[in-house]
Amino acid sequence: MMRSMDVRETEIDLRDAGDGEDDEGQQTWKTQLETVLEEEEEEDVISTQSDTRPLINERDPRQINDCLKVSFEDVIAEPVSVRSGDRIWIWSHALFEVSRVWFYRIITAVLAVPVSLLAGILFAILSFAHIWFFTPCVQVVLINTGWLQTLWSSVLDIIILPFFQSVAKCCSGISVVLTRE
């Protein structure tokens, strides 16, 4: 991957912390390599932290819960033929939205931590079983049945393929003509 060299300058303080020199006597060194190294470290920190840090602004980045984007109009709708009063409709709308938001917040405050703990434990167990049990078992089966794969492909190539090619050549001469009487 090509990386463009940024021309920003970085100052490096070479004096000891206990030097006692003031800022006028300090020698600064400018280098582009230091800037590139700092950018790589920042990218490494970002890439490793983004896997574990929760996303505060974007909480459904993969659009998993699109089906839960429900508004009042998706649930309650009055046809033109029957209508309630305007104040009833406005208050119903307001109570729907407020109760939906606040009950979700209350239920989340009570159950989010235990459910996330159980989900974390469940996914850890499933990951462990997949990594340390299922994958090695599948690999053992694949290694020990390699001869069976070779035998099956030979049977297909020697017996089955010629048979069906012959049937196809026999049937290729058949033509069906539909006429209306």
Automatic annotation (TrEMBL):
<feature type="compositionally biased region" description="Basic and acidic residues">
    <location>
        <begin position="1"/>
        <end position="18"/>
    </location>
</feature>
<feature type="region of interest" description="Disordered">
    <location>
        <begin position="1"/>
        <end position="27"/>
    </location>
</feature>
<keyword id="KW-1133">Transmembrane helix</keyword>
<dbReference type="GO" id="GO:0005901">
    <property type="term" value="C:caveola"/>
</dbReference>
<dbReference type="GO" id="GO:0005925">
    <property type="term" value="C:focal adhesion"/>
</dbReference>
<dbReference type="GO" id="GO:0030154">
    <property type="term" value="P:cell differentiation"/>
</dbReference>
<dbReference type="Pfam" id="PF01146">
    <property type="entry name" value="Caveolin"/>
</dbReference>
<dbReference type="InterPro" id="IPR018361">
    <property type="entry name" value="Caveolin_CS"/>
</dbReference>
<dbReference type="GO" id="GO:0051480">
    <property type="term" value="P:regulation of cytosolic calcium ion concentration"/>
</dbReference>
<dbReference type="GO" id="GO:0070836">
    <property type="term" value="P:caveola assembly"/>
</dbReference>
<dbReference type="GO" id="GO:0060090">
    <property type="term" value="F:molecular adaptor activity"/>
</dbReference>
<feature type="transmembrane region" description="Helical">
    <location>
        <begin position="102"/>
        <end position="135"/>
    </location>
</feature>
<keyword id="KW-1003">Cell membrane</keyword>
<comment type="similarity">
    <text>Belongs to the caveolin family.</text>
</comment>
<keyword id="KW-0472">Membrane</keyword>
<dbReference type="InterPro" id="IPR001612">
    <property type="entry name" value="Caveolin"/>
</dbReference>
<protein>
    <recommendedName>
        <fullName>Caveolin</fullName>
    </recommendedName>
</protein>
<comment type="function">
    <text>May act as a scaffolding protein within caveolar membranes. Interacts directly with G-protein alpha subunits and can functionally regulate their activity.</text>
</comment>
<keyword id="KW-0333">Golgi apparatus</keyword>
<keyword id="KW-0812">Transmembrane</keyword>
<dbReference type="GO" id="GO:0042383">
    <property type="term" value="C:sarcolemma"/>
</dbReference>
<dbReference type="GO" id="GO:0000139">
    <property type="term" value="C:Golgi membrane"/>
</dbReference>
